[in-house]
Structure formats: structure tokens, C-alpha cells
Design a protein that fits this description.
Blueprint (H helix, E strand, L loop, with lengths): L1 E2 L18 H8 L3 E5 L2 E4 L1 H20 L3 E2 L5 E3 H7 L1 H4 L6 E3 L5 E4 L4 H11 L8 E10 L14 E11 L2 H21 L4 E5 L9 E8 L5 E6 L4 E4 L20 E4 L6 H8 L7 E8 L2 E8 L6 H8 L3 E2 L2 H8 L15 E4 L8 E4 L5 E6 L1 H4 L4 E3 L9 E2 L2 E5 L1 E15 L1 H5 L3 E3 L5 E3 L1 E8 H11 L1 E2 L2 E2 L10 E5 L8 H13 L4 E4 L5 H11 L3 E5 L1 H6 L1 E6 L5 E5 L12
Parallel strand pairs: 1-31, 4-8, 16-18, 18-21, 30-31, 30-32
Antiparallel strand pairs: 2-3, 5-7, 6-7, 8-9, 9-27, 10-11, 11-24, 12-13, 12-24, 14-20, 15-16, 15-17, 19-20, 22-23, 24-27, 25-26, 28-29, 32-33, 33-34
Helix pairs in contact: 1-12, 2-6, 2-12
The chain binds adenosine-5'-triphosphate and magnesium ion.
The site of adenosine-5'-triphosphate has 18 residues, from strand 9, strand 24, strand 27 and helix 12.
């Protein structure tokens, strides 16, 4: 029999000061997790049961689409990561160390290299393809800001799957099947998710979709238009070319004196204008050569778009600004310079703009980009925001949602197989690099996201699929042994109906038991106490609705229909 004593139920009154999110607070208070170091947690037995239920749902759905489970090592020799080129590129999230022989290793933050190495050792022919392997295992990422408990930790459990193909069509099929499996997984966990077009980031590749749980506390911003069927992470959302708006004649541009106006807000205040009629210029360096980016003064640069446009880049230093343009930061502009200029599409919407003059304390007014910056090339440079025209139907606009990224699928193509020389022989006898996909779900983050969606003022409110136990029996008179046989019969009956059940057998007061049962969020509570001895009745309470129903112990079978 599972009891509060043997199942290690350890609720705590206070949540730690660093717990900003409800999910983090409740996971600590309900005794699901305990912090060991920044971003490193013990998953306590109650938390373990939740994680295992989540893992089993993922496992079922991965197996159902013909994916084979394995366990890859967490400790990875540096050589493998050098082969892919990521040893140098990955940065400080990668925890590197040396063994006693001074051989370099890392703790795996993701496993494309390992799986490519494993598969290429065994798969040599197209006849063995397609195939997908997955694991549900520990990852380590030395996050710059671990926070929100297991939502953004350094050591965490991920389901990561990798597929191998001989054609783009075959990858398309697995990529689609995987997304359907993801929808089923999140639905079975009782979660509302959106699937958004995403940026592929450090993993590489060329197409990706993120699964996000809609939540106000989410770190990701998603832009949507439901009628147009459009959902994209704002980082990956295009902004459209509105086409040049031809205006009534704009006077020629002219330089004006603008003392102490290095920021957009300064020039707006000085001239009594709005930021959207200012032209913001940013100097970047690509392979040590300068490039200028111009966008409307009220918009932000999207670094991922710039990276796609020009490749790896860095911001120019103030010394470089002075060297190339002869001014200080704040007075940079695209006129009268040989530097290549990229103009954001947004600069087609106003008749004229005010921009920096490449001379301190001076700006240029009446700049019509189309007319005055003929060497500028047009592109999409800015971060999309709510109110922008929808990329799939420009007659409507997108609105913004916050979301927690719980899953991510990528088409990797041949990025890793080419770098690592992982090939197979195709039908015509030619050696080809594997075409690959990869697919992740964060187990802890999904559990935490579920709590963000399923809780109330009294604590957790688990969906049936993830509850550590489906039913809790609160024994209000634990010292009275007359209740023991009734409780034993109850437990046997409930288990025979296929539900798991735990008994609060502690010597605490009823108040403490009610509070803890609510805090732990088991879907159903069964109250057994003096009333049971007096009148032969037990009470069943539904955690979510608070609804209670009395049942006679002589008709225990009736209870079954009240537990789902
Ligand atoms: P983020 O942008 O939030 O850092 P990511 O894009 O780095 O996420 P992926 O590399 O796609 O994440 O990893 C797959 C999944 O692993 C994510 O969807 C998320 O559920 C989970 N995950 C990633 N980083 C963490 C972390 N630090 N803590 C817990 N789960 C994580
Ligand atoms: Mg990350």
C-alpha cells in the first residue's frame, strides 16, 4: 500500500525567494523537486511519479510511429564535436572537462554528433532507411541564467529523437508523423499547445517548428492570426515588403544642427517627431568589413534575420564607427558613404525620415530612402510585432501571445552527416550523406508548463494523465484501527479499477491533511474518519470542482463512476 510515509510525501510551507513562477513555487512546496545547485535539481519521489507518467506517454507515442528507444552517453569525447565543428562554435553552454589522461570531453547538451556516429557505424545502405532512434535521458547545458526551477535548468531530462533518410520526401514524411505524435503527446498531458514556425538557432538546419504552451509567463513571443492559420515565433516571423508608397514631392534632404541628440528619443523630443519617422542606422562587421543596417526608429533588429542575410556578424565598436564614418554612436546614417547599406522594408511606409548625418550633433531631414539611398538594398531586417500584416494574408494583422517552448522539431538536412562524413549507398550505388531530422521535448519543462496551466490558489490540480496518484485517501483517525480494514478494501477496489491510490496515514490534524491533499493536487480525495465509523459513509471530493459525494462503504462499487 502506498502511504504518505513510504512514498516520501514532503510538503513545505515556504517557497524559496528565487521562485518567481507559480510552477516553480508549487513544485518546491509540494515536494516534487529539491534544489541542489543553480539549475540542478533532485526529482523527489512524488515528482518522479509525474515525470515517469509524462515519459511513458512520450514513449508510447514514439514507439507508435516506429521509433526505437536507446540510451546515448552523456559524456562525449571532444573529437566527435570537433568533427561537426561545434566544439568551437557552441560557446559556454557546453560544459567541457578533461579526464585523468587530460583527454577533453563535454557533457551532452544535444546528441546529433553521437547519434550520427552510432548510425553511420551500422547503416550503410538505403535499404536500411528510413529509421528513427530516440532516448529519454539527461542533458546538460550551462545556461547563462538558469531559472524557473526545472523550466530552465542546467541538468534536465529531454526526449530527443533523430531520423535518417535517403530523400527529402522521406524526411518530410517522418517530420509530419513526428509533429502529429507531438500533438497527441501534449493532448494526452491535458495541455493546450500551438505549433509555431521557428528559427533553427544553434542546432542548424533549414526548417523547424516549435510547440509552445500558451502562458503569460512564457519566455517566447508568438505571433498569430488564427483565421489565416498563421503561427510563428516572433524571431522567425517575416515582415512584409509593403511596396514603395509614392508620395507628394519631398523637399531635398538637408543637414541640421541637433546638439546632444544621440538617441532616437532625444531627436524625437528635439524635433517634436515620432520614432517611426526616424531612420535608425546600425553598423555591423562581417569578416572585418563594415555593413550598415537601417530600419524604422520604432523597430528592433532581428539578429537571426541578419545572420541569414550576411552570415556571422558582430556589432561595430565605437572606434570602428569613428574610423569608418567619422562620428560617435548616435549620429550614424546611410547618406554619403561607400559602406554597403541594407534598408528594412519598413522604410517604405513614410514619405521621409530623419537620420544621423555621420557628423556629431547633426542629423539629416527629408530623407526619402528610395530616392536618396540608391545604393541601399531592401530586405527584411526587423523583429515582427503585433499589428504587423500577417505573412500568409497581408489583409489581416498578427497578434501576440506568450508561450513556453516545450518541444521543437528540426529538418537538419545533411548539416551533420556531411561534416562528419556519415554516408550510405543509394539505389544507384552512389555514396550520399544521410538526410536527417531531430526532434526534442523537455520533460521537466513540460511538467512545469502543465502546472502553469493547471493550478489554483490552493495548489496543484493535475490532469489525470500526470497526477502522481489518481486518488488520495485521507484517514482522519489514523489511531483508530477499526478503519484499517475499510481502507484496505478501498485501496484494493480502487487499484482493481486501474487507478493508483495513496493513503495519508500521518498523525496530523484534518486541516493539515486537507491542505496537503489540495496542494499535491490529486484529482480525487476520499475522506475516511469518525463519520465512516458512525454512519458507514465515506466522502469523495473532486479536487478541481470541489464537488463532494457521500458513498456507503457497503456499496463501494458505486465509487468507481465517481473517479473519472
Ligand atoms: P530555449 O530557447 O528555451 O533555450 P532551445 O531552443 O535551446 O530552448 P532545444 O535545443 O530545441 O531548446 O531543446 C529541445 C527541448 O528541450 C526544448 O523544447 C525544451 O522543452 C527543452 N529544454 C531546452 N533547454 C532547457 C533547459 N535549460 N531546461 C529545461 N528544458 C530545456
Ligand atoms: Mg536554449
Amino acid at each position: 500500500m502506498h502511504t504518505y510515509t513510504n512514498a516520501f510525501v514532503v510538503t513545505v510551507k515556504e517557497s524559496p525567494n528565487d521562485a518567481e513562477l507559480v510552477s516553480h513555487q508549487l513544485m518546491i512546496r509540494a515536494g516534487l523537486i529539491k534544489k541542489m545547485a543553480a539549475g540542478v535539481y533532485t526529482i523527489l519521489p512524488m515528482g518522479h511519479r509525474v515525470f515517469q507518467k509524462m515519459i511513458q506517454i512520450i514513449r508510447d507515442e514514439m514507439n507508435a510511429i516506429g521509433s526505437a528507444e536507446c540510451t546515448l552517453p552523456v559524456t562525449i569525447p571532444a573529437d566527435l564535436w570537433k568533427k561537426s565543428g561545434r566544439w568551437d562554435k557552441y560557446g559556454r553552454e557546453l560544459l567541457r572537462f578533461v579526464d585523468r589522461h587530460d583527454r577533453p570531453f563535454c557533457l551532452g547538451p544535444t546528441h546529433e554528433e553521437v547519434i550520427t556516429d552510432v548510425v553511420s557505424a551500422y547503416v550503410t545502405s538505403y535499404k536500411q532507411l528510413p529509421m528513427t532512434l530516440y532516448q529519454i535521458h539527461t542533458k546538460f547545458r550551462d545556461e547563462i541564467r538558469p531559472r524557473f526551477g526545472v523550466m530552465r535548468s542546467r541538468e534536465f531530462i529531454m526526449k530527443d529523437a533523430y531520423s535518417f533518410h535517403d530523400s527529402a520526401e522521406s524526411l518530410d514524411a517522418t517530420y509530419a508523423a513526428m509533429q502529429q505524435a507531438y500533438h497527441r503527446i501534449f493532448e494526452r498531458c491535458g495541455l493546450t499547445v500551438v505549433a509555431a514556425q521557428a528559427d533553427s538557432g544553434a542546432i542548424g538546419g533549414n526548417e523547424s517548428v516549435e510547440f509552445l504552451v500558451v502562458a503569460a509567463c512564457g519566455e517566447d513571443s508568438v505571433l498569430v492570426n488564427t483565421e489565416a492559420g498563421f503561427v510563428a515565433n516572433s524571431e522567425a516571423c517575416p515582415t512584409l515588403d509593403p511596396g514603395i508608397v509614392h508620395h507628394v514631392s519631398v523637399p531635398p534632404y538637408a543637414m541640421i544642427h541637433t546638439p546632444n541628440c544621440p538617441r532616437i528619443t532625444d531627436i524625437c523630443a528635439y524635433r517634436g517627431i515620432q520614432p517611426n519617422v526616424c531612420l535608425k542606422s546600425i553598423l555591423i562587421m562581417v569578416n572585418d568589413a563594415p555593413i550598415m543596417l537601417c530600419l524604422p526608429g520604432d523597430r528592433d533588429i532581428n539578429e537571426a534575420k541578419i545572420q541569414r542575410l550576411v552570415g556571422a556578424f558582430r556589432w561595430a565598436t565605437s572606434a570602428e564607427l569613428t574610423h569608418y564614418l567619422g562620428c560617435s554612436p548616435g549620429y550614424v546614417g546611410p547618406l554619403n558613404t561607400e559602406i554597403p547599406v541594407w534598408l528594412d522594408y519598413g522604410l517604405k511606409t513614410q514619405p521621409h525620415y530623419t537620420c544621423g548625418a555621420n557628423q556629431d550633433d547633426h542629423h539629416v531631414v527629408n530623407v526619402s530612402p528610395d530616392r536618396d539611398i540608391p545604393h541601399g538594398q531592401w530586405a527584411d531586417l526587423k523583429m515582427a510585432i503585433a499589428g504587423d500584416p500577417c505573412p500568409s494574408d497581408p489583409s489581416v494583422t498578427v497578434s501576440a501571445l506568450r508561450g513556453i517552448e516545450v518541444g521543437h522539431v528540426f529538418k537538419l538536412g545533411t548539416t551533420y552527416s556531411q561534416a562528419m562524413d556519415a554516408t550510405f549507398t543509394n539505389a544507384t550505388g552512389t555514396r550520399m550523406p544521410f538526410i536527417m531530422g531531430c526532434y526534442g521535448i523537455g520533460v521537466g519543462r513540460t511538467v512545469a508548463a502543465c502546472i502553469e496551466q493547471c493550478h489554483d490558489d490552493n495548489g496543484l490540480c493535475w490532469p489525470a494523465a500526470l497526477a502522481p496518484f489518481h486518488v488520495v485517501i485521507l484517514n482522519l483517525c489514523p489511531k483508530n484501527t477499526d478503519l484499517d480494514p475499510i481502507i484496505q478494501r478501498l485501496v484494493a477496489a480502487i487499484e482493481s479499477w486501474g487507478y493508483d491510490v495513496i493513503v495519508d496515514n500521518r498523525p496530523d490534524s484534518p486541516g493539515v491533511k486537507f491542505n496537503d491533499a489540495d496542494l499535491l493536487g490529486f484529482p480525487y480525495q476520499i475522506i475516511v474518519g469518525r463519520k465512516t465509523l458512525d454512519s458507514g459513509h465515506i466522502e469523495r471530493k473532486c479536487r478541481k470542482t470541489g464537488e463532494t459525494i457521500g458513498v456507503s462503504v457497503t456499496q463501494m462499487d458505486v465509487l468507481k463512476s465517481y473517479l473519472n
